[in-house]
Write a structure and sequence with these properties.
- The chain is of the alpha/beta class.
- The protein folds into three domains: about 130 residues, 3-Layer(aba) Sandwich (Rossmann fold); about 240 residues, Alpha-Beta Horseshoe (pyruvate-formate lyase- activating enzyme); about 60 residues, OB fold (Dihydrolipoamide Acetyltransferase, E2P), CATH 2.40.50.
- It is about 35% helix and about 20% strand.
- The chain contains 13 helices and 21 strands.
- It has a six-stranded parallel β-sheet, sandwiched between helices. A five-stranded mixed beta barrel has the order 17-18-19-21-20. A three-stranded parallel β-sheet has the order 7-10-13, sandwiched between helices.
- β4, α3 and β5 form a beta-alpha-beta unit.
- α11 runs parallel beside α12.
- It binds S-adenosyl-L-homocysteine, iron/sulfur cluster and FE3-S4 cluster.
- The site of iron/sulfur cluster has 10 residues, from α5.
Length: about 475
Amino acid sequence: MSKKLFIKTWGCQMNVYDSKKMADILSPLGYDAVDAPDNADLMILNTCHIREKATEKVFSDLGRLREHKEAKAEKGEKALIAVAGCVAQAEGDVILQRAKYVDMVFGPQTYHLLPEMVMKASGDRRVVNTDFPVESKFDHLPEESTAPGPSAFLSIQEGCDKFCTFCVVPYTRGAEFSRPPEQILNEAKRLVDHGAKEITLLGQNVNAYHGKDVTGATWGLARLIAGIDRIDGLERIRYMTSHPGDMSDDLIDVHRDIAKLMPFLHLPVQSGSDRILELMNRKHTAADYLSIIIKMKEARPDIAFSSDFIVGFPGETDADHQATLDLAHRVNFSSCYSFKYSPRPGTPGAVMGGIVPEQVKDARLQELQSILFEQQRSYNQRSVGRVMPVLFDRKGQKPGQLLGKTPYMQSVYVDAPERLFGQIVDVRIDKASQNGTAGTIVTTEEVLSSPSHETHYRQIGSKNVDKTAC
Ligand code: SAH
Ligand code: SF4
Ligand code: F3S
């Protein structure tokens, strides 16, 4: 008999990938994914520990799941509750102690053992597995059991050896590990065979990728992208998240040479002050960052940039903050994430002196965001009137509406028939706001006569023109 599986996911795209894999692993055991916890047989919270209140959010959700578990118990049925992901990895013991009704706690590196863990927990034994096993979970993950959708994630690299002083990732995900290229290419082909048009290669430090093939040769991300580029039927490639220190010249070159590689780069900078970057142990300066931006623009003049910023890191002065604002002005981003520094237990930043008061952090965040939001709004505004290929990868909230992405990662709302879901279609951008755009499908005749058709999108990447996107 089929059983219901509810998974709630927080955090980065790698957690989204992991949740999908958990569903794939549990599918042969008869579990079907559902969107709500009501009457579910197994409920998994796949958690994120990157910023404050992560653990409290998990406990408040656990309280709600407990009610579903009790409702099921009243009917004489058993439901299991699991906490997975980075909070589980960091705070597994606290969870087990505080929430006696939780049946399983496991970290990001052990979820391939879910069938055994579920069996044990079904037999009334609580399970905790927050090891960093020597074997790679990727060698044990099953093939996808559900269609990936038009835009798929593919984890190629995991963990981090950089140890930025604010960040929990090296502790929750463990040491850097790159999957073998053959395994990645096979997974990419399967995703495309099952309908994916776009693949985003994922890693906490994706551009540090260094996978060994069967001959023992090491592939960097540039070579891997070139391999994935050869997959017939795949139309778009993206990757995230990159570290400025690993932005090698050959990776910059593939942005010029491979048209399927979309003209968008998410490159977190965190701060524009060299003093703060050093305290953060980022191992790059503001000038290093700006020189990457220049080289990327030379390789792909229409490229859009996005970044992550942290304000209020310990010791940050008004002058440091001003340097961050200056950097934001100099790059002119298309979109960004910005956060107030949140001390994470166990990281070096949490015990540094020079704590910045909360109201100063608030004011600095507001000041930075007013620049970044304006840049994003004006970036979207500049797209109005242009015709761009849009991949419809989501259904809109209203019937008859699809949501898609431009090559530059802008969201586009379009009135479109459902049969176009999963297709790349030329859309003229009619309206723009800070968060996205809205457009209209253009017919071929309209495209050919439109002056905006000649705008730079189609002239770039000329060495290997992406015909499907044109
Ligand atoms: N691997 C990526 C991103 C990791 S986490 C990188 O190297 O940049 C995603 C973002 O969360 C970070 O880029 C950072 O801006 C933010 N972040 C991480 N730890 C944080 C903390 N302690 N406080 C506030 N923001 C944080
Ligand atoms: Fe965290 Fe720094 Fe590693 Fe990114 S590079 S995951 S911010 S430690
Ligand atoms: Fe969060 Fe873990 Fe990703 S802490 S950002 S889910 S690596």
